[in-house]
Amino acid sequence: MSNFIVKFDNVSLVIEGKKILDDVSFEIEEGTNTFIMGPSGSGKTTILKIAAGLIFPTSGKIRILNKDISNIKELYEVRENIGFVFQYSALIDTLNVLDNVLLPLKFRKRNEFKKRKKEYIDKALEILDFLGLRGFEYYYPNSLSGGMQKRVAFARAVITLPKIIFYDEPTSGLDPISSNQINKMIIDINKKYNVTNVVVSHDILSSKQIASFVIFIYNGQIKFKGKLEDIRETNEEIIRNFFQMV
Asked: What architecture (CATH level 2) is domain 1-81+163-246?
């Protein structure tokens, strides 16, 4: 069995005649912290949505956890092992922190949730404690800072113990101190829960702190795949300009 947990083969997406992704191919190794980077509008978030089965490509093949997600049955199996952190956290304002975190279990384990509710609450509290949120479980999202809301979104993604977590711009809108805290937590989640992290970002400092592998996309095409330190060797002007601080 391949140790590549995500694999795109010649994936293209065309919407209303516009090519959003153009023959994209890459592999993500299990256990890594992989960054998908590029300028705004380059196709980064589209890759995440396709990998999560939220949208389907025009052509090409995608395998997640060694399953073909064009097969609806296999897609549902894959989704059981995926966590997703949205750019603006996407917490439900009318639910407190604990209920936001428990939400995936209420949907995925609906037949057994009532019977195992105490067990699931204990699990949620353990994760909140790990993420520095113990004591905030009954707060509502609008009473939390942006960084704390991100951590609640992390807890919600972790609660089902997925094998992969996709993050869409996790440090967007945060100050440098909060960004550093979020970066550390992404690393800690990778280590504690043995999760493969796939992070969409244009935050170069975050990539330097976290990334074990970088995929750079521009105008829907992959321009670089490899370790961050190898970017210095590229002759692509757009990449050199983007990573000029590296």
From this structure: 3-Layer(aba) Sandwich (3.40)
